[in-house]
Design goal:
Structural class: mainly alpha
Helix content: over 70%
Number of helices: 10
Order of helices and strands: HHHHHHHHHH
Largest sheet: none
Shape: globular
Length: 258
């Protein structure tokens, strides 16, 4: 009886301990940051204190400016990410399943993949103008490559023993019952990297040509020498990215339950 009563206590203790491990590093960093600001080790005109950042965050939230910029960036990210993911999954699946298709696109992938995403921004602005289309295109390119490469890798890494066992089945059954389910973990890794790249892309695009969005807010604050607003924008991107990554991990556990 005593052992049964102690099990819930031990489980709750483990949960509290895990939460402690997750927050100890950021909390310690904030404490050191605040102490350094109070003692003058850090120049507050260059790196404002955490207290100033919290005050700025509350002010931006109260005025609705942060939500407005974040919503614009978030919509752009979702559009570009969905397009890039769809194209990456489609081409990656075809290249992974067909050696002929892979040979056709290998050279193009090898040439275009090393090009930094930010290098496309001037060209896309020249072709499409300073419009939503050019920004969505930049995000699509940024999220396309991680999904493409991880999809190909996932299909190629399918255990050959599974394929040997399924050799008596029709090809479509092998693809949908063996190959694609086995490749899903790698595909989700590509999706997680893709959404991270999408946020990087949207900020870069908004810094160069935009009148709204988190990237624009950071650039405009830099021009006005307002590092406290710049840091709020940077941290907002990080927190939103963390939340999105956690959602993708949750979906991954639910979908790839085996």
């Amino acid at each position: 009886m005593s052992n049964k009563k102690q099990e819930p206590i031990s489980e709750s203790f483990i949960q509290i301990y895990n939460v402690f491990l997750f927050i100890i590093a950021p909390v310690t960093l904030v404490i050191i940051w605040q102490i350094s600001s109070n003692t003058g080790l850090l120049n507050k005109n260059i790196l404002p204190s955490p207290k100033r950042e919290v005050e700025t965050l509350i002010s931006l939230l109260a005025s609705g400016k942060l939500q407005g910029h974040l919503l614009v960036s978030f919509i752009r990210v979702i559009k570009g990410f969905l397009i890039g993911t769809f194209l990456g999954l489609s081409l990656g699946t075809c290249m992974g399943l067909s050696k002929t298709v892979q040979k056709i696109f290998t050279t193009l992938v090898g040439v275009f993949r090393p090009i930094p995403m930010i290098a496309w921004i001037p060209l896309l602005i020249l072709w499409m103008g300073i419009t939503e289309t050019s920004k969505v295109a930049v995000i699509s390119i940024g999220s396309f490559w991680p999904v493409l490469l991880n999809t190909i890798q996932g299909i190629h890494s399918v255990d050959k023993k599974f394929l040997e066992v399924a050799s008596t089945l029709e090809k479509k059954h092998v693809i949908f019952s063996i190959v694609l389910p086995s490749a899903l973990p790698s595909v989700f890794t590509g999706i997680r990297l893709g959404i991270s790249s999408a946020w990087t892309s949207v900020v870069a695009a908004e810094m160069i040509a935009a009148s709204k969005g988190i990237g624009y807010m950071i650039t405009y604050a830099r021009e006005l020498s307002q590092p406290h607003i710049m840091l709020v924008g940077v941290f907002t991107i990080g927190f939103v990215g963390l939340i999105i990554d956690a959602v993708i991990q949750y979906l991954q556990k639910k979908i790839i339950y085996w």
